[in-house]
From TrEMBL, chain A:
GO biological process, one term: methylamine metabolic process
Domain Methylamine utilisation protein MauE: 10-142
Keyword terms: Membrane, Transmembrane, Transmembrane helix
Protein name (database record): Methylamine utilization protein MauE
Membrane topology of the entry: Multi-pass membrane protein
Keyword Transmembrane attributed: yes
Pfam families per record: MauE
Automatic annotation (TrEMBL), chain B:
Gene3D superfamilies in alphabetical order: Glutaredoxin
InterPro entries assigned: Thioredoxin-like_fold (IPR012336), Thioredoxin-like_sf (IPR036249)
Region of interest called Disordered, as start-end residue ranges on this chain: 50-69
Top-level taxonomic group: Bacteria
Domain Thioredoxin-like fold: 79-227
Key words of the record: Disulfide bond, Isomerase, Membrane, Oxidoreductase, Redox-active center, Signal, Transmembrane, Transmembrane helix
A single MF term (Gene Ontology): oxidoreductase activity
Name by which UniProt lists this protein: Protein-disulfide isomerase
PANTHER family: DISULFIDE BOND FORMATION PROTEIN D (PTHR13887:SF14), GLUTATHIONE S-TRANSFERASE KAPPA (PTHR13887)
Residue ranges of the TM segments: 21-44
Length: 156, 259
């Protein structure tokens, strides 16, 4: 019983570090370049132009905050739920771009915008984001994990 | 061991006066900090990316393209040709080297109505503003009547991506373009004030809104042209075919750009 709960806690830690680390990296790489981030969101051609601009401005900061909470293991369940939801939104965004024949880079870790037809990586991007979403789903189901502030600070 | 750990956790719970209240306080603080951070980030970003209220060249408006040859007498039915370019984009240099002279002559002769959209793709990619400054300086040169010369000089001296034009280079090229005396002084003042930088950014914004994200891009009327299709088999530009399409305003199906 004890051993298996330890293993599950370790899996929780791994899920936190993967999803949280990815969000932290993705947000951190985009934080300094608001124009590029705005253009990357506008390239999906889903939201109205001006709204897409502000989503582009805010997204990197939201990713950094979420990523930090997950890495620290604070409010893991809520953070993981939002993180997983974000990944699902990204998957939908990339899939619609693919389906409509747009040729864009996902702009996930900086970059973004239009690319040549043979430079799109939609399949790989979607599989990767689904992987991140699954990490979030695990934590939603079982938020307990090793080395978390939830445990040390809140005694959860 | 297991009971030990449980006891410790329970002790911790007691010390912090139970779990509920504590979690709500911590959660509240975290939520407030998170919201402040994201909102501050959006405000800072908007500040960085602000369009500004600088002026557009006299002949045009914010967001609208620029006609470098307003005095050209248009022949009847001259098609409107849109060129989207960034002085620091490598493919734009290839385009300029191949077709720049053609476009200039056709526009000067009034055989096409040229509309130039100055974009800042390389600035966006590398978080810089040198493309916008180069474009502003080119418009300053247009104010002094040397658009053609300065435009060509910038492309001839294009720094390797993602390097930037230096201030000295901008000034040197202005002289090379034929400015001196009062005209050079006027250009220098215009350039130093980054007079048209906000205008250039507004044009980039509008062109993205209109679906033109990359450079160079060429449209005849409303039809986007695949300019790469004008390369002959030995890699040379087929100028005759190019000029035929531009002046007729009719783009054959196999030269229409995808999307």
């Amino acid at each position: 019983m004890r051993a298996s709960s330890r293993v599950l806690d370790a899996v929780g830690l791994l899920a936190r570090l993967i999803l949280g680390g990815a969000l932290l990296l993705a947000g951190g790489l985009k934080v300094g370049n608001p124009v590029a981030s705005a253009r990357a969101v506008q390239a999906y051609d889903v939201l109205p132009f001006e709204l897409a601009r502000y989503v582009g401005y805010g997204l990197p900061y939201a990713e950094v905050v979420l990523g930090a909470l997950l890495v620290l293991g604070l409010f893991t369940r809520v953070s993981a739920a939002i993180g997983a939801l974000l990944m699902v939104v990204f998957v939908v965004g990339i899939a619609q771009a693919w389906a409509r024949g747009l040729t864009i880079d996902c702009g996930c870790f900086g970059g973004g915008g239009q690319v040549a037809e043979n430079e799109t990586k939609y399949g790989r991007e979607i599989v990767r984001d689904i992987g991140f979403a699954l990490c979030g789903a695990w934590l939603l189901w079982r938020p307990q994990s090793m080395l978390s502030l939830d445990r040390y600070l809140l005694g959860r | 061991m297991s009971t030990d750990r449980k006891a410790k956790i329970d002790a911790a719970k007691k010390k912090s006066g139970g779990t509920g209240a504590n979690a709500i306080v911590v959660g509240g603080i975290v939520a407030i900090v998170a919201v402040i951070l994201v909102v501050a980030g959006v405000i800072w970003s908007a500040q960085q990316d602000k369009g500004g209220d600088g002026s557009a060249p006299a002949s045009t408006e914010m967001g609208q393209p620029f006609n470098p040859y307003p005095d050209a007498e248009l022949v009847e039915g001259a098609p409107t040709v849109h060129v989207y370019e960034d002085f620091r984009c490598p493919a734009c240099k290839i385009f300029e080297d191949a077709f720049g002279q053609s476009i200039t002559e056709l526009a000067q002769d009034g055989k096409i109505a040229l509309q130039v959209h100055l974009k800042t793709v390389i600035d966006t990619n590398f978080n810089q503003d040198n493309s916008a400054i180069a474009a502003s300086n080119a418009l300053c040169a247009a104010d002094q009547g040397v658009w053609t010369e300065y435009h060509k000089a910038l492309f001839d001296n294009q720094p390797q991506e993602p390097n930037e034009f230096s201030q000295e280079q901008f000034e040197q090229l202005a002289e090379q373009a034929g400015l001196s005396g009062e005209k050079l002084d006027a250009w220098t003042e215009c350039a130093q004030n980054e007079t048209y930088v906000d205008y250039v950014k507004s044009v980039d914004d509008q062109s993205v809104k209109d679906g033109v994200t990359g450079t160079p891009s060429l449209s005849v009327g409303d039809t986007k042209v695949n300019w790469g299709s004008f390369a002959t088999e030995d890699g040379q530009p087929d100028i005759d075919a190019f000029e035929e399409v531009l002046t007729s305003g009719e783009v054959p199906q196999d030269r229409v750009a995808q999307q």
